[in-house]
Specification:
The protein is an alpha+beta fold. The chain has two domains: 169 residues, D-amino Acid Aminotransferase, Chain A, domain 1 (2-Layer Sandwich), CATH 3.30.470; 76 residues, Dna Ligase, domain 1 (2-Layer Sandwich). Strands 7, 8, 9, 10, 11, 12 and 13 form a seven-stranded mixed beta sheet that branches. Strands 1-6-2-3-4-5 form a six-stranded antiparallel beta sheet, with helices on both faces. Strand 7 and strand 8 form a beta hairpin. It is globular and about 55 Å long. The termini are far apart. 38% of the residues are buried. The chain binds adenosine-5'-triphosphate and magnesium ion (MG). Magnesium ion binds next to loops.
């Protein structure tokens, strides 16, 4: 059952798959179905959480919730609201969520560039020889005022080292990029065990302030758009060629994500 599946939309199911490998599990934020009780417990434990649709994409409906000294703060889109009590916060969230399945996930305090959060999209594909190969890493800086980095939400795409070097230095930057590729390879291996028909995965990886990488999400139908905004065109060319070899055609008309300004490109 399921062995021919190529796409999985439930983030909860995908999280459970990555948790099967203990080397990956250490890099996965705790993720549970959204309930009032799970929200309260996660906020007590983690202080900051993300609330997101189980079947969402493009950053739509993804919200950041923080516990303050007194009360709570909810950040959705470019708007933030505060609530003096957890009850008020829960009511507001339940109104936004309606009957859709939602998740509550431990929030990662990610690295920032000019005050804006950033994270990474790591693409891994089966190459024409049938072996998993990491074909690109792109960094995504959130639109000013937003708590999500998605290009479709106005994020800006950078070459990873441009953002990592000032935060981590050369040695740790190289180590982190190698670590991200290893996490992608482990993820591909654990998905392949159950879903051998899969050919590509796109990991959303955030790096916290102690430079630990966290796998926020695994996309089973990854969007190549971030890679079209990089100065180095060789990545997107390879991604498209590998995709073509296993019968995938990408839409490369990417209008929402922005290119990094020339001065910041290496
Ligand atoms: N636990 C978290 N900690 C910190 N930031 C997060 C967390 N979860 C999500 N984010 C931010 O929100 C963005 C969107 O979340 P996520 O990738 O889970 O959903 P999505 O983008 O809607 O799904 P898809 O990638 O399939 O389009 C992430 O790229 C990241 O910037
Ligand atoms: Mg995502």
């Amino acid at each position: 059952m399921g062995s021919k599946l190529k796409y999985i939309s439930s983030k909860l199911l995908k999280t459970r798959i990555v948790l099967r490998d203990p080397r990956l599990a250490r890099h996965v934020p705790s993720t549970e179905p959204f309930t009032k009780e799970n929200l309260a417990a996660a906020l007590r434990r983690d202080g900051m959480v993300y609330v997101k649709p189980d079947h969402g994409s493009l950053g739509v409906g993804v919200m950041k919730v923080e516990r303050l000294e007194a009360g709570y703060r909810l950040h959705s889109g470019v708007k933030a609201s505060t609530f003096p009590t957890i009850r008020g916060l829960q009511q507001s969230l339940l109104k936004r969520i309606g009957t859709k399945p939602y998740l509550v996930q431990q929030g990662i305090r990610v690295l920032r560039y000019e005050g804006r959060p950033f994270d990474f999209r790591v693409m891994i594909q089966k190459n024409p020889a049938g072996r998993w190969e990491c074909t690109g890493i792109a960094a995504r800086v959130a639109h000013p005022g937003k708590a999500v980095t998605n290009g479709s939400q106005g994020g800006t795409i950078f070459t990873p080292s441009t953002l990592l070097l000032p935060a981590a230095g050369r040695h740790k930057t190289d180590r982190l990029l190698r670590h991200m590729k290893r996490l992608a390879a482990l993820t591909a291996a654990v998905f392949s065990r159950t879903y051998p028909a899969m050919h590509e995965l796109g990991l959303d990886i955030a790096v916290d302030r102690r430079l630990k990488p966290w796998v926020l999400e695994v996309n089973t139908r990854p969007d190549p758009c971030p890679f079209t905004k990089l100065e180095d065109r060789t990545l997107v060319k390879k991604i498209v060629a590998y995709g073509q070899a296993y019968g995938r055609r990408y839409c490369l008309n990417c209008t929402k994500a922005r290119k990094a300004p020339p001065k910041s490109r290496p």
